[in-house]
Amino acid sequence: MEREDDRLAKAVALVLTRPDLTPERSTAWLSEIGAALAPYERGPIPVWASNTVRTLRALYVLADLGVSAERGGHPLPLSCGDAVRAQVAAVLRPLLP
Question: Which terminus of the chain is less hemmed in, N or C, by CB atoms within 10 Å?
Fold first, then answer.
């Protein structure tokens, strides 16, 4: 693994720091991901779904801690971090054992 999921989560989180985002716009895209993952609530999941879950877990942490554009830089909060965290948790909850 080359931590692609972490890098993708960081890129998404950086986009979600935009001050013009509303909670709805910050989270609307997650409903499609939730629908795509829904068939895998029980049992094994395909590789793409596993990668998606890892990316969302990393995004959840970044929504809590903030994200910095540079290594060691000052973390910026996501504009609607609470809403993003709540929606990511809602998407992941059915997949957790």
Answer: C
Task: Give Dmax (Cα) for the chain.
Answer: 40
Domain of residue 32, residue span = 4-95
Structure-block tokens of residue 29? 């895209």
Cβ burial, residue 58 (10 Å; 0-12/13-18/19+): buried
As a whole number of angstroms, the distance between CA 22 and CA 36 comes to 24
Quote the Cα angle for 88-70-14, to 5°: 30
Q: Around Cβ 2, how many Cβ atoms within 10 Å?
A: 6
Give the tens place of pLDDT for each residue, 7-58.
Answer: 999 999 999 999 999 999 999 999 999 999 999 988 889 999 999 999 999 9
